[in-house]
Specification:
The structure holds 2 protein chains of 2 kinds. Chain A is α/β, with parallel strands linked by helices. Chain A has 2 domains: 8-171, Rossmann fold (3-Layer(aba) Sandwich); 193-319, Rossmann fold, CATH 3.40.50. Chain A has 12 helices and 14 strands. Chain A has helices spanning 16-30, 48-53, 65-76, 88-94, 96-104, 133-138, 151-161, 209-222, 240-250, 265-276, 297-303, 308-320; strands at 13-14, 34-38, 58-60, 81-87, 111-115, 144-146, 168-171, 177-178, 193-196, 201-205, 227-231, 234-236, 252-260, 281-287. Chain A has a 7-stranded mixed β-sheet, with helices on both faces. In chain A, strands 9-11-10-13-14 form a 5-stranded mixed β-sheet, with helices on both faces. Chain B has a single domain (5-281), classed as Rossmann fold, CATH 3.40.50.970. Chain B has helices at 5-29, 34-39, 41-51, 75-84, 125-138, 157-168, 189-192, 198-204, 217-225, 264-280; strands at residues 31-32, 66-69, 145-150, 174-180, 208-213, 236-241, 260-261. In chain B, helix 1 (5-29) packs antiparallel against helix 10 and helix 3 (41-51) crosses helix 9 (217-225). Classes of the chains: A alpha/beta, B alpha/beta. Chain A binds chain B through residues 38, 40-44, 48, 60-64, 66-67, 89-90, 94, 123-128, 293-296, 299-300, 303, and chain B through 29, 72, 97-101, 104-106, 108, 118-123, 152-153, 155-157, 184-186, 189, 192-193. Bound molecules: thiamine diphosphate (TPP).
Chain lengths: 322, 283
């Protein structure tokens, strides 16, 4: 278990990327093989903290993301452990081939930490939204895909990533995300966390949707509906056991993610369920197959049902079908 | 070549108006890419009020010149100009950056008349511009394609892939303008990713290249007026040396003002300073 060395327990919200910046400095001090790469975004993704603390192991490649990930591969084949960061849209799409061919195919220990995920860039529009990245990266063999639920889980995931084999794509947000974990808990890559017990229905969520699911579950509890909430922080390898257990015990499964409904967490869970052949009612919450309109992120979440209200409604709808 | 002094003076006035509108738009949104929007005002004003053949009543007029804003985050400067030119009413921007507004931080060609291409991810625009210029060649059309790039944006390899293809296909009907304000996001370009010798790079890639003061309206107009015939065989590059945050003393050359917040009160101060500059010009 990773110690809860770095955490924020006394606030309701904290920027995950700020936590990333702080933890990077910590692990960098402990491990001389760690190098940090940025692409003209050290202030946005907080790799600038590392640049200040350990400048000799920080590299800024300017607005040239593909080159940065290629360089990361070069570091990795020589035993360094690169943490390379840019916005999720650019990491997963512009650099898709570098991620697959230079990093995943040779199975290199590169940590791709992609910030400003999902719709968190709100009025930045589609060029800056990243609603395809989970689908893209999880289809790359060898790639581990992690979506921390909050800043505290991000800290644990970054610590855990140091000794984990193979490439990792980690997806973090932009804003001050709600804090899910106010107490220490066991975290392991690939092992889902049940953050709330319940046997009527299960919501499997990742990223900021975990808190939304918890809020929906609280409201449902007032009506006597007990919702199991699973934080599926690792999309790949997926904790299939947790999925199947929830399917058997609750019969209704809903996935929730700040990502296209195609190919992300919902897709991954659907694959497991379909192959298991369990009699389960299943639905996915995510961005429908469209490019999002623009607006402040919270308005966009409300528009597409990516919030507590949307999850609440979906649970009621599914229960109606029982 | 001498440019009509009355034209210079009129467009200098326009540049002040546009800078003030950039500030007003930022107040609506609360924040915006101020530095890079302010640096490129003279370039856009010269293009949209003099050089570009466009017809606001027919945004898709086939004979129009094409303009691609490759540094899409400069939309803040483009929007008020397109409104002022009559592509859409200014009121349409009143919900700038708000829910369902056509006007976000980056321009969307399917939502805004006069926007030629949806941009915002850097390093895409010049390739699209090459496609435009090749189309004009195929169709034996006389319109030109202009593309405005950020200097930090030149870090992207795709820019240079596009540059090679433009000279391979002898695209004398293509003009790249570089907003050389000396900064990208993290800091000065020469610290983050050095670009110099920049002029020599474009020349080595087969482009006729001039360097001008891009905040000097006379020089910008002169460079545009001096472009050779579009039927020529060499693509044209204008490196416009500008000041990031131009016109607002506390924003000029300040990295933090790449993206910043301005409230109503601050906006009044800023606009007063911009007005003073207009008076200082003696007009
Ligand atoms: C591919 C890509 N990477 C990163 C960004 C984020 N970004 C937006 S503006 C900017 C700096 C741009 O610098 P420059 O091109 O010099 O523009 P200017 O200084 O004129 O604003 C960055 C890194 C982006 N929009 N696209």
């Amino acid at each position: 278990m990773q110690a809860f060395t770095f955490n924020v327990l006394d606030v309701d919200r904290f920027a995950t990327r700020e936590m990333y910046g702080k933890v990077l400095v910590e692990i960098g001090r402990e491990n001389p093989d760690i190098v940090v790469l940025s692409a003209d975004m050290m202030r946005s993704n907080k790799t600038g903290d590392f640049a200040k603390a350990i400048p000799e192991r920080f590299f800024n490649f300017g607005i040239a993301e593909q080159n940065m990930f290629g360089v990361a591969a070069g570091f990795a084949i020589n035993g360094k452990i690169p943490y390379a960061s840019t916005f999720a849209a650019f990491a997963s799409m512009r650099c898709a081939e570098q991620l697959r061919t230079d990093i995943a195919y040779p199975n290199l220990k590169v940590r791709i930490v992609a910030s400003h995920s999902g719709l968190s860039m709100g009025n930045g529009g589609t060029t800056h939204h990243a609603t395809e990245d989970i689908a893209i990266t999880r289809s790359m063999a060898n790639m581990t895909v992690i979506v921390p639920a909050d800043a505290n889980e991000c800290a644990k995931a970054v610590y855990a990533s140091v000794d984990y084999p193979g490439p990792i794509y980690m997806r973090i947000g932009r804003g001050a995300e709600p804090i899910v974990y106010k107490q220490d808990y066991d975290f392991a890559i690939g092992k889902a966390v049940t953050v709330r017990e319940g046997n009527d229905v299960t919501v499997i969520a990742c990223g900021i949707m975990v808190m939304a699911a918890i809020k929906a579950a609280r409201k449902l509890a007032e009506e006597g509906i007990e919702t199991r909430v699973i934080d599926m922080h690792t999309i790949k390898p997926l904790d299939e056991e947790a999925v199947l257990k929830a399917a058997r015990e609750t019969g209704i499964l809903i996935t929730a993610e700040e990502h296209s409904i195609i190919g992300g967490l919902g897709g991954a869970v659907a694959e497991v369920l379909a192959e298991a052949g369990l009699p389960v009612k299943f639905s996915r919450i995510g961005l429908p197959d469209v490019y999002s309109t623009i607006g402040p992120p919270d308005d966009l979440y409300a528009r597409y049902g990516l919030d507590a209200e949307g999850i609440y409604k979906k649970v009621k709808e599914m229960l109606g079908k029982k | 070549m001498t440019v009509d002094p009355a034209l210079i003076s009129r467009l200098e006035e326009k540049a002040v108006d546009i800078r003030k509108k950039i500030i007003d738009l930022t107040v609506i949104a609360g924040s915006g890419h101020l530095g890079g929007a302010l640096s490129m005002v003279e370039i856009l004003v010269a293009l949209y009020y003099h050089t570009l053949k466009v017809d606001p009543s027919q945004p898709k007029w086939p004979e129009r010149d094409r303009f691609i804003l490759s540094k899409g985050h400069g939309a803040l400067a483009l929007y008020p100009i397109l409104a002022d030119r009559g592509f859409y009413p200014e009121e349409l921007m009143s919900n700038f950056n708000g829910l369902d507004s056509p006007f976000g931080m980056h321009p969307d060609m399917n939502k805004i008349p006069g926007v030629e291409m949806s941009t915002g991810s850097l390093g895409h625009g010049l390739s699209v511009a090459v496609g435009c210029a090749l189309t004009a060649r195929l169709d034996c059309a006389s319109w030109r394609t202009f593309c405005l790039l950020g200097d930090g944006e030149l870090n992207e390899g795709t820019v240079w892939e596009a540059a090679m293809s433009a000279s391979k296909y002898k695209l004398g009907n293509l003009v790249a303008l570089v907003d050389r304000n000396g900064f990208s996001l993290d800091g000065p370009t020469e610290e983050i990713m050095p670009l110099e010798p920049l002029k020599e790079k474009w020349i080595a890639f087969g482009w006729d290249t001039v360097e001008i003061d891009g905040n000097n309206m006379a020089e910008v107009l002169n460079a545009l007026e001096s472009l050779p015939e579009a039927s020529g065989e060499r693509p044209q590059c204008i490196i416009a040396r500008t000041v990031k945050g131009k016109g607002v003393s506390f924003m000029e050359n300040q990295s933090e003002w790449h993206y910043g917040c301005v409230d109503e009160q601050k906006a009044e101060e800023v606009k007063a300073e911009l007005e003073l500059a207009r008076k200082g010009r003696g007009c």
